[in-house]
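Write out this protein's structure.
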Amino acid sequence: MVLKSMKAALIAGGLLFGSQAFSVEGCAVYKHSSFRGGELVMASDHQYVSFDGGMNDEFSSLRVGALCEFHAYEHTWFRGLIRVYKEGEYRQLHPNDAISSAQCFCDYISE
């Protein structure tokens, strides 16, 4: 995959996500700020998630992988206010604990 070799080169050069390179395939949300607490990784295959039950409004930080976007919704089933996060690290989401459903979209190129 072209992306994997590009991503490896960027991480090795310290260019991906500034000096704090990380490896996330898709998107990862965390229960607490600064990537602490429980983690939920959403696959890079356009996976859709609705946080009914115990996960609703429970996330405080986020990592979005290379060539991905994370769409966070205020309500379940992708309703209400939407916030779009591009690739990078978000140590503290604002507002905090306000994601009820989400989508992770990645634009990978196959060889």
